[in-house]
Structures are given as C-alpha cells and as structure tokens.
Design brief:
Blueprint (H helix, E strand, L loop, with lengths): L7 H24 L6 H14 L3 E2 L11 E5 L2 E3 L14 E10 L2 E10 L5 H19 L7 H14 L3 E2 L5 E3 L6 E5 L16 E4 L2 E3 L5 E3 L6 E3 L5 E3 L2 E4 L6 E2 L4
The structure holds 2-amino-4-trifluoromethylsulfanyl-butyric acid and cobalt (II) ion.
Amino acid sequence: MAVTIKSQREIELMRDAGKILAEVHNRLEEIIEPGITTLEIDRRGEEMIRKAGCIPSFKGYEGYPASICVSVNDEVVHGIPNKKHRLFEGDIVSLDAGVIYKDYQSDAARTYGVGSIDAETKRLIDVTKESFFRGIEQARVGNHLYDISAAIQNYVEANGFSVVRDLVGHGIGKEMHEEPQIPNYKPVGRGMKLCPGMTLAIEPMVNAGGYEVWILEDDWTVVTRDGSNSAHYENTIVITEDAPEILSLI
Ligand code: MF3
Ligand code: CO
C-alpha cells in the first residue's frame, strides 16, 4: 500500500484520537509506582480507552494479548502484561498504547522511572524523548524522510547510546502500520519527500548499550542482547505546510 495523504476531515479525526490517547498516557503515568503489576497497568489503560469510546488497537493485533505494551528495563518493546510482574523502585517502564477512534488510529509510547532511578537511567529516558523532538524538527515539507532518521540517530549516538535497528516507526491512519517505514538510523539514500497530510508515528527505541536485540520465547517481548536498559518514546504526528503537529501529546 502506498503512503496515504489525509484530508482535513481525516486529520481532525486523528487529532481527536490523539487527544484521547495523550490523556490515557497522562493518567497512566500517575499510577506508575513500586508494587503495581504490569497487568494492572494494562487493565487500567484498556478501561480508559474503552470509556473514551475507542478500541484498543493492540488487543488481538497479530495475536498480541493486551491493550498496552508494558516493557520493563531491558525489555525494548512489546512486553506482555503479567499479573505476577510487579514494578520495583529503580525500574524503568515503557508504556506503548494505540487507540482507534471513528476508524482512525493513534499510537504513542512513553518511558517512566519507577520511584527514584539512577542518574544514568534518567539520562537514557531524557535522551530518548529529546531524540524524538530532534527527529520531528526535520519533519517538514521539502525535507526527506531519512532526515528524521538521521537527526534521531545523531542525537542518540552523540549521547553515547544506540538506536534499535530491527524495529522502525511507520505511517499511520486507518491502519496502525502504513507506509512509509521510518528507521531511527539513517539508511543509504534520502527516503521519500515529505508532504502535507502525511501522518507518521515516530518512535525512537534507544538502548543504553548495544543496539542488538532478541525476541523472547513468548514471540513478542523484544529485549536488548546485552541486558542493558532500553527506553521508547513515540507520538503520532502530521506534516503540515508549517511546523509539524504532534497529535498524541497534551
Ligand atoms: N506501537 C507498536 C508499533 O508502533 C505496536 C505494538 S504491537 C502490538 O508498532 F501488537 F502490540 F500491537
Ligand atoms: Co508505533
């Protein structure tokens, strides 16, 4: 499928979806504390999504069993919520969630410290978030797709961390995953030209150590090969004639 350019009406619906998702993330942040189970986070998230009149897009997606991906410490993404897995002080936890509102999707992720975390781990979370903003600075008409990728990679590597290569950001709209793929490292070439009305999920995944990852036996959980911590930050955005608009952040 080719890249889809959204109409004003479609962008308005994606704005609504994004606002709901941003609110879900803001409220989930408040419940992150030592002792909570990853399943409880999923349960609360799913309840909020449904109460807002949305469908949790992850639930059942290619067999994924939950509404919120909860990934702790060396888990990069796609961690499966579990009633036996409690968060501890000093952990970091990435929450990734997606909603469908009136047929349109939004996708966003955040990483939080649990209780107090050490300075280097805090830096990992901050650099990951800032790398998203470095990337989106390049998300302008006339630029090319891999300008976004290069900006993310350069910022992350200048700070001594690495970007995961096996997973990428993506176009989004009526489908969660549309074209184009958006790597967080610069491939050869420039990538496509960016146009108004393109809606993208930009999502740096950043490892404290090497960029290599494994997938666990559950066929979902992606972990760092070297056991180092990993952080994730994602928003759904729209390219406009002017500055890009972040749809999933309030
Ligand atoms: N947010 C993820 C992405 O951007 C999707 C989660 S995978 C799922 O691709 F199976 F949980 F849906
Ligand atoms: Co995504």
